[in-house]
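Field notebook, page 437. I keep forgetting to write these up properly, so this time I am using the form the group agreed on. The chain and the ligand, nicotinamide-adenine-dinucleotide, are recorded exactly as supplied. Prediction of the bound pose follows.
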Amino acid sequence: MRKITIIGTGYVGLTTGVAFAFLGNKVICMDKDEEKINNLNKGIILIYEPGLEELLTSVKNNVEFTTDIEYAVNESEVIFICVGTPSREDGSIDMSYFKEAIGEIAKVINGYKVIVNKSTVPVGTADWVKEEIKKCFKGEFSVVSNPEFLREGSALKDFLEPDRIVIGVEDEIAKKIMSEIYSKINAPKVITDIRSAEMIKYAANAFLAMKISFINEIANICERIGADVKKVAEGIGLDKRIGPYFLNAGVGYGGSCFPKDIDGLLMIANDHNYDFKLLKAVAEVNEYQQERFVRKIVDTLRRENGNTVAILGLAFKPNTDDVRKSPAIRIIKRLIEEGYKVKVYDPKAMNNAKKEFEILGKLYLDNICFCDDPYETVKDAYVLAIVTEWSDFLKLDMKRVKNLMYKPYLFDGRNTFEPKEIKRLGFYYEGIGRKSF
Ligand code: NAD
């Protein structure tokens, strides 16, 4: 049993804290957001992550929530930094939350600590952390890089049953402590130098994004040659050298990690005078894939003299309420800019999406209608676009959907439906990389 502090109690921090408590540790979760901490102290989780609230209830005697950084740092020997590292408008990494957290730790650190960078941070950050702490604290401490690979929607499972655990560590005491902390998790441990650990995170996300952009380009060619990308993906994915994952053609990747980590790695490469051509193309293909989807919808609306689009799915993927860099938000924004009205529904992400459009402003709020259920959403629409593959959408009474729509055009941005079956119901159907209409 160890005492562990988590700084930053968002998707990663809260999952990490609750999971470590479940593994028998005493955990202090610290966040500067008072509202978040007050709610957590009442057992209320403001994010949607399957199983998290239930597990928190069962381990509540092992977890404390606080906004007091001094207490959080002094009480534990191991401090995990899990604050956000979003990207700025220009694609560079916004390290302000991370720097703020390190600055606070430096002010209050009172003895030996292992400071663990779990946030995704540029290569070389651990060296910077060491320098910053040394400016204020003359005692011993260790800095470790332990990037996180969990996925929202299956965060707890991913944390407790990961494919691997990466630990970048350069001293024996920290290595021993980190190995012990993770000893109850049965997964290969990649113990390496700190810079390699920092790079592994970026390289992993870049590779996965590359697979998505690759299959999307194959899909676009499939549409032209009359092939079915689902079968192509199955056919190549069974090759063990390729693997079946991340080969779902669609409207591209989004979320709080892939877009920013791709931009981040491009920045890192650029800062070191390396032109990462392949990764630039990955990002470009992803942008194009979303715009291409918008163009198809707009062309149909123009042809039909239609004005309303129904969008099902706002979260960047199913089983989360997270809409950060969600393809749905961008697609809706573009449709409104093209002069159309958009009706939207998502099982969990309505509130977060509302906040995004409030930030975007009046033009968007005036032209978007947040609906209470999918049937209300599709009523009188000329086009229905599926943008997030929630399993709930597969359970819809599609006959009823068709009858409610003004025109039954269905653009399936995630290849949720089987073209033959859905066309039989009378829809004009178009998936991604599959035979259309
Ligand atoms: P998040 O935005 O959900 O949570 C970050 C939390 O940090 C917020 O609650 C915020 O209030 C808090 N915070 C910010 N500054 C603080 C400070 N100075 N002191 C205390 N708390 C502070 O972020 P997230 O999605 O959990 O991501 C965290 C990190 O993990 C990022 O670097 C991200 O790239 C990485 N990551 C995220 C995922 C994911 O799926 N979300 C997966 C792997 C890695």
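OBSERVATIONS:
- The longest strand covers residues 3-7.
- The longest helix spans residues 194-225.
FOLLOW-UP: compare against the apo run.
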